[in-house]
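Please, structure for the following, as tokens.
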Amino acid sequence: MRKLLVFLKDYKKESIIAPLFKMLEALFDLLVPLVVASIINKGIKYGDKTYIYQMCGVLILLAVVGLVCALCAQYFAAKAAVGFAAKLRHALFTHIQSLSFTELDMQGTSALMNRMTSDVNQLQNGVNMALRLLLRSPFIVFGAMIMAFTVNVQAAFTFVVVIPVLFLIVFGIIYVTLPLYRKVQERLDQVLRRTRENLSGVRVIRAFHREDEEIESFCADNEALKKEQLFVGKISALMNPLTYVVINLGVIALLWNGGVKVSAGAMEQGDVVALLDYMSQILVELVKLANTIVLLTRALASGRRVAGVLEVESSMRFPNAAEPLSQVEEGEEIIGFSHVDLTYAGAGDKSLEDVTFSVKKGQTVGIIGGTGSGKTSLVHLIPRFYDATGGEVRIGGRDIRTYSKQQLCNMVGIVMQKAVLFRGTIRENLLWGKKDATEEELWKALTIAQAKEIVEGKADGLEEEIEQGGRNLSGGQRQRLAIARTLVGQHPILILDDSSSALDYATDARLRMAIADLDPKPTVLIVSQRAASILYADLIIVMDDGKIVGQGTHEQLLENCPVYREIYDSQFDHSRAGKGGV
């Protein structure tokens, strides 16, 4: 938590002023019972209306000044808390963006989103309440006890007995309930995780007719959460009745003792009222303090989770000053894999094993294999989304770890397996590929990606709004715009990771021919489960269970690679073998 306090450094003034104003407000609150006692003892007792009016004016003045102090304290506390949360959220988001795919996979999307939203909000509330009440409540409690001694020393000893008992009850219940609240939070995380999984996988659940099972599992988790919340709620509910019992016993003691002293003339009636007011203030502030401590405990737990994410370091290191890009001539190796292994963090088996191949500049390479054969894992090593756990991956004859991140981004353009578009206009999405792209470059990329007619068919053209995730587009339209976005960057290496699966064969063929006609021609790697998409590639790599089981041209693989022959025969009528192409 201490590491997070650095985000409050720009709000030192607010963090000091807010508690000070709260202390001033508390001081004025402590003066009110004395003024009320004075009204009773002097004004009402002797029927002095002028004095009563004067003291009522003092009460109004104290109320106004206290209100101003409270508003100032709230303003500065809120400013510090909101600013702290904004800076923390920004730092957290920036840090998450710096993590490699390995760390992102280990942390999980839902967990990171919870840290960015729920946990940061808990910290914001915790900072706000700490600045407002953490000093005020103890100040009121002990201040009320001290002020009670100024009223009547003997009667004030009731406070000396009541306050420790109240502290024991309040903090005893907190001590018991805090671990239980942590368990409740863990249960809540489980319910949220299951809810998110069900919502994101609702189509799969319905496709396999598993609604009843999922409802049953959710209800079981929800019921467990309810039971734990009820259990801790019952314990927490003891706080009010127990504290009120103690306070009422203290009130009875004050009234009894005060009544005897008033009858004996040793104490004024107003003093008894003042003592009762102080007792009420103590009760209210102790309950506030208890709630504040519970809130702060939750905030501390959230702080530990947020700090845990900030402490995660990326497993990848990029050189700050990398050597200039190597010039690769036509026909020379541009991509090379040498005995490459890949094991994902936390996985037992290798996802890639002893992968070796070489790609020359300008070649079109097809990568094919069954689901889970390692195709995507292989191409993700080229832009360095993951680091190989064994062997070497080269671009331009150099280990990719010698390039800076910007150099790799400039060299390698990749269209991911899932087409992701962001909320905004079509133009804004395309400019992700190149910030300063011209109108001509945008339309050229759209033409090559077979997406020109999509944009022309929209009323606003490039200014057409796209909803989050491209929900207002079909799957094929999303894929073509995602391809166009990458083509805008004009990268020398282009990776299409099964990015045309939603396109019909004719559109897919036109896309591949348009890419092949680019000048200068990029080195293209096409990952596909369609044999038609890679039929005329210069080199076809066949993957099976994380290993390369065949390399060569289409004709060579038909003769000497049983895995490729099986894929080809399962998809093709031999009469169609000559159609299509890159």
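Residues 575-582 have pLDDT under 50 and may be disordered. The chain has two domains: 2-311, 333-576.
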